[in-house]
Amino acid sequence: YAKANFRRRFMAATSSIGPGALNMVTAAALAHVNRLPVLFLPGDVFANRIPDPVLQQAEDFSDGTATVNDCFKPVSRYFDRITRPEQIMPALNRTMQVLTDPAECGPVTLALCQDVQAEAYDYPESFFAERIWIPRMIRPDRRELAAAVAALKGAKKPLIIAGGGVLYSQAWEELAGFAECQGIPVCETQGGKSSLPDDHPLNMAAVGVTGTSAANRLAEEADVVLAIGTRLQDFTTGSWSLFKNSAKTIIGLNVQPFDAGKHQALPL
Question: In CATH, what number is assigned to the domain containing residue 238?
């Protein structure tokens, strides 16, 4: 749902504690890997711990604060456990920051303690005021841009890899215009499919493990690879068996610095 709506919309998923929560961990991991916004709201144990163990609670012999919801921590961009009703105010603010930020986007988990869910609290009226969240626009660093331009100008066999970021940014027209102007062939990742129309003369289709022979051949010979909005995961690179040109230069165009600098790429 989030992917089809270019990360402009997302859904929330709720569960009880125990197996209900654990059934969502795989979904959280998928959203984490693919940088997709999802809000997970699993129930948690009683904050006051009086009735422990409650139904389906997994007790830890050595850590009284541990619950099954801790499994969400490594696969959440933001994790919080709500032990007081007023904590939901700063937690939701941080939640929306993460879910709407192009670079930090990913799953958020707010573990809701069962007894806290039943508590009353006099929230300020301002908390319920309508608010519009506008995705941050990130501008390129001029020095990085200059280095990328210089690399492209010197390229003999350039190649563009279009990832999901092209779609999330709704930049398919800009991609087509740039590729046509420079005459650079384009291949697509699994997440970047339809970045260019299938019948576009510069679209070499998918690259990687399930890629076309044309795209993979170009990947083998490319001396400059402009990777746009892609994580350059193993499925795309074929464990780097495709990119055999030892003199190749990779330009990582990505809003997330972690992804932009992968594999010794020139980040942009």
Answer: 3.40.50.1220
Specify if 147 maps to a domain. yes
Q: Are residues 124 and 146 in the same domain?
A: no
The answer to whether residue 174 is domain-embedded is yes
Tally the domains of the chain.
Answer: 2
**Judgement on whether residues 207 and 233 belong to the same structural domain of the protein:** yes
Residue 186: alpha-carbon gap to chain centroid: 22
Rounded CA gap, 83 and 211, in Å? Answer: 49
Which structural domain range is residue 157 located in? 142-267
Q: What is the pTM of this model?
A: 0.90
One domain for residues 156 and 114: no
DSSP symbols for 135-151? PPPPPPPHHHHHHHHHH
Mind listing the pLDDT tens digit of every residue in the chain (268 residues)?
999 999 999 999 999 988 899 999 999 999 999 999 999 999 999 988 888 887 777 777 778 788 999 999 999 999 999 999 999 999 999 999 999 999 999 999 999 999 999 999 999 999 999 999 888 888 899 999 999 999 999 999 999 999 999 999 999 999 999 999 999 999 999 999 999 999 999 999 999 998 999 999 999 999 999 999 999 999 998 887 888 888 899 999 999 999 999 988 999 9
* Nearest Cα residue to 191 out of 176, 206, 179: 206
Residue 37 covered by a domain: yes
Q: In sequence order, what are the beta bridge partners of 253?
A: 228
Contact indicator for 86, 127 with CB cutoff of 8 Å: no
